[in-house]
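for the recovery benchmark. C-alpha cells below, seq after
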C-alpha cells in the first residue's frame, strides 16, 4: 500500500465514477513487477548459515521511498528478515563518522576485490580490499569496538535504526547460528589481528559483526535506509539528519564499485544505481536525489544476490532510465527569468515623480529568478550570464525562492562571482530565503565579505529596496510632503476644486499608530480612505503584501464595488488620513452624477494599470 491519508468510501467511489486513477503509475509498475517476478522460483536459499534455510522461499516484498518521504509498498514488504551484508554499507558510514576518513582509509581499502565476499585474502599492504566484503566489514566493526568497547553493537543498532526511522531488533536464533558456524569469518578476523587491523579482543569484535548481520529489517526499512542515503543523509520519513553528505558520498561510491559482491561490475553496467545485497535476501539501492529501493526475496542466484530483487532493480532502472551515468540536464533551465523592472515594479505605490525616475532608470535594476537545485554546472552557467556582458545594472537581485539546495562547489563559484561584481560597483541583493536557510548559509560562508550582501525573504521586498536606491540616487524623496492634498489623489483626478472641497467636507480625519490595523478583511466595506501622511500596507489575511501606499494615495477604494473587505490595511508608520463614508458619498453622487462618473473612470484606470502590471509579470515568466 502507499503511505498516504485514507479517504472515505464515497470519495473513492466518486473517483472511480469519474475515471480518476486509483493508483499512481509508479505503484502500478511495482505491482506489475511483483506479479511477474513472484512466479520466478530460480535460485536457492543460503545454506552456509543453517538458520537461513528456514526462510520461506515464496516471500517477496518491494518498497520504494521518495526523497519527500512517500512510501510505496508491494507484497511482503513488512516481513522481517536479517539484514546480513546489507549492514556493511551503513556500518561503514558509521565508522567514517566515528573515527574519521583518514583512520578508516589507513585500515580498509576501497578497491573491488574481484573475489567472493568471504575471501580470506588481503591487499598487498595487508588491508581488506573494501568495506563491502567480510574482511572489510569485520574491520569496520573493529574500529567501532575500539571506540565504544562493549557498547559497540548498541551503537551500530542505534545508527541502523536511525537510518530506518525506527528501533530495530535482533534475530537471536540467526545470531546463534552464525556464531556456531562462522569459522571462515573467524579465520578472516584472526588474519586481520595478525596484521594489527583488529584489536586484541577478536571474539568480541566478531560478536559485534555477527550481531549486526542478525539485525531484523523489512523491505520497507531498507527502502527508508536507502532513501536516507539518496537524500544526502536526511531520513525523508523522520526528517532526522542521520549522517553527513560527505560520508554519504563515500558510502555510495563504495556501494557502486563493490556493493553487489563479484557481480558489482555487471550491476553497475546494467542497473547503474548504488546498491548493497545480503544473503538474507535483501537488496538496498539508493539513487541520489531521487529514491531509495528495498527488496526482499530469500532465493539467491550464484552470486549470492536475491534473484527476484535483482530483476526488480533491473526492470526499474530500464523502464525509467535511472542509470546514474545516463543523466540529461540543461543548465539553461536554472534561470527561470532574467529581466529589469520595466513594468514589473514592486507593490509599493509611488508618487508621480518617483515613478518617473523608475520608468527612466528601469534598467538599473536587474533581476534573476533561479529554479531547481544549484550545482557546479548550473551556477557556472548563472555566473557566465552575470559576467559575460559588462555589469551595466548597478543593482542586481538574485531570487532563490525556488532553489531547494546548492552544492558546496556551486556556492564557491557564486561567492567568487558576487565578490567580483561587488568590486566592480554592483550591489547584490539576494532574496527568497530566511537567515536560517541552508542555501543562505552556504552562500554567505563562501563569500569573503557577506556583510556586503543584502538579503530579503521576499523578492518584492528586494525590488522595493532597490527601487528606493534608484529613486534616492536620481533626486527622489527630496520633495516628500508630510501631507498630500486630495487633488493629488489618482482616484480624484480631474475633479474641480469645489468638487474636492465637497468631498473633504463629507470626510473625517483619522489618525493611526504604527502597526495599527485600519481595515480588516471580511468586515463591511462602508468607507474609503485618502492617505495624507505616513505609509500603509495592504495585506491578505495570510500576511502576503499586496501593496504599500504613501501620501497622496487612496485605499479601501474597492468599497465602491464590493460589500466586504477583501484585505487588511495596516499602518506601517504613524498615519493621517481622511475617511469618506460611502453612505455620504452615495448622497453626493446622486446630486453630482458627473463627479461620480469621473471617479468611476479613475477607478477603472487604476484597476487597468494593476491588470497590466499583473499581465506583464505573467508574460515575463511564461516567456522562459
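predicted aa per position
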Amino acid at each position: 500500500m502507499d503511505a498516504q491519508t485514507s479517504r472515505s468510501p464515497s470519495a473513492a467511489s466518486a473517483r472511480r465514477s469519474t475515471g480518476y486513477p486509483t493508483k499512481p503509475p509508479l505503484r502500478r509498475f511495482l505491482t506489475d513487477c511483483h506479479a511477474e517476478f513472484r512466479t520466478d522460483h530460480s535460485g536457492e536459499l543460503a545454506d552456509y548459515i543453517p538458520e537461513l534455510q528456514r526462510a520461506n522461499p515464496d516471500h517477496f516484498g518491494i518498497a520504494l521511498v521518495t526523497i519527500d518521504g512517500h512510501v510505496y509498498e508491494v507484497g511482503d514488504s513488512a516481513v522481517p528478515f536479517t539484514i546480513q551484508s546489507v549492514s556493511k554499507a551503513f556500518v561503514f558510514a558509521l565508522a567514517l563518522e566515528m573515527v574519521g576518513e583518514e583512520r578508516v582509509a589507513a585500515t580498509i581499502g576501497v578497491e573491488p576485490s574481484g573475489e567472493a565476499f568471504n575471501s580470506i585474502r588481503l591487499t598487498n599492504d595487508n588491508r581488506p580490499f573494501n568495506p563491502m566484503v567480510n574482511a572489510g566489514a569485520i574491520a569496520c566493526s573493529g574500529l567501532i569496538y575500539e571506540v565504544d568497547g562493549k557498547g559497540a553493537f548498541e551503537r551500530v543498532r542505534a545508527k541502523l535504526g536511525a537510518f530506518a526511522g525506527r528501533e530495530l531488533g535482533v534475530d537471536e536464533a540467526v545470531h546463534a547460528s552464525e556464531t556456531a558456524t562462522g569459522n571462515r569469518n573467524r579465520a578472516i578476523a584472526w588474519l586481520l589481528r595478525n596484521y594489527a587491523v583488529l584489536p586484541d579482543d577478536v571474539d568480541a569484535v566478531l560478536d559485534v559483526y555477527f550481531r549486526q548481520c542478525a539485525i531484523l529489517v523489512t523491505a520497507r526499512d531498507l527502502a527508508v535506509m536507502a532513501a536516507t542515503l539518496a537524500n544526502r543523509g536526511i531520513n525523508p520519513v523522520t526528517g532526522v539528519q542521520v549522517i553527513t553528505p560527505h560520508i554519504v558520498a563515500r558510502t555510495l561510491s563504495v556501494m557502486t564499485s563493490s556493493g553487489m559482491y563479484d557481480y558489482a561490475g555487471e550491476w553497475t553496467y546494467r542497473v547503474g544505481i548504488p546498491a548493497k545485497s545480503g544473503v538474507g535476501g535483501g537488496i538496498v539501492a539508493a539513487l541520489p536525489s531521487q529514491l531509495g529501493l528495498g527488496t526482499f526475496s530469500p532465493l539467491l542466484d550464484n552470486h549470492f544476490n536475491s534473484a527476484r530483487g535483482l530483476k526488480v532493480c533491473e526492470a526499474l532502472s530500464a523502464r525509467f532510465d535511472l542509470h546514474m551515468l545516463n543523466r540529461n540536464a540543461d543548465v539553461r533551465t536554472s534561470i527561470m527569468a532574467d529581466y529589469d523592472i520595466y513594468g514589473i515594479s514592486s507593490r509599493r505605490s509611488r508618487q508621480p515623480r518617483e515613478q518617473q525616475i523608475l520608468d527612466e532608470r528601469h534598467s538599473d535594476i536587474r533581476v534573476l529568478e533561479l529554479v531547481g537545485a544549484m550545482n557546479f554546472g548550473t551556477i557556472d552557467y548563472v555566473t557566465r550570464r552575470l559576467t559575460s556582458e559588462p555589469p551595466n545594472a548597478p543593482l542586481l537581485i538574485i531570487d532563490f525562492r525556488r532553489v531547494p539546495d546548492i552544492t558546496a562547489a556551486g556556492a564557491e563559484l557564486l561567492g567568487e562571482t558576487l565578490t567580483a561584481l561587488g568590486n566592480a560597483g554592483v550591489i547584490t541583493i539576494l532574496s527568497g530565503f530566511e537567515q536560517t536557510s541552508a542555501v543562505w548559509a552556504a552562500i554567505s560562508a563562501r563569500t569573503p565579505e557577506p556583510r556586503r550582501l543584502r538579503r530579503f525573504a521576499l523578492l518584492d521586498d528586494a525590488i522595493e529596496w532597490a527601487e528606493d536606491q534608484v529613486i534616492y540616487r536620481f533626486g527622489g524623496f527630496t520633495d516628500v510632503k508630510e501631507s498630500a492634498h486630495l487633488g493629488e489623489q489618482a482616484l480624484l483626478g480631474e475633479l474641480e476644486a469645489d468638487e474636492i472641497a465637497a468631498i473633504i467636507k463629507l470626510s473625517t480625519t483619522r489618525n493611526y499608530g504604527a502597526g495599527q490595523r485600519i481595515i480588516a478583511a471580511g468586515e463591511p466595506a462602508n468607507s474609503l480612505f485618502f492617505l495624507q501622511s505616513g505609509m500603509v500596507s495592504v495585506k491578505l489575511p495570510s500576511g502576503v503584501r499586496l501593496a504599500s501606499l504613501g501620501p497622496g494615495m487612496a485605499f479601501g477604494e474597492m468599497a465602491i464595488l464590493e460589500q466586504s473587505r477583501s484585505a487588511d490595511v495596516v499602518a506601517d508608520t504613524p498615519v493621517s488620513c481622511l475617511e469618506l463614508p460611502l453612505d455620504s458619498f452615495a448622497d453626493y453622487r446622486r446630486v453630482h452624477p458627473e463627479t461620480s462618473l469621473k471617479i468611476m473612470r479613475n477607478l477603472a484606470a487604476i484597476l487597468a494599470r494593476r491588470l497590466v502590471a499583473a499581465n506583464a509579470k505573467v508574460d515575463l515568466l511564461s516567456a522562459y
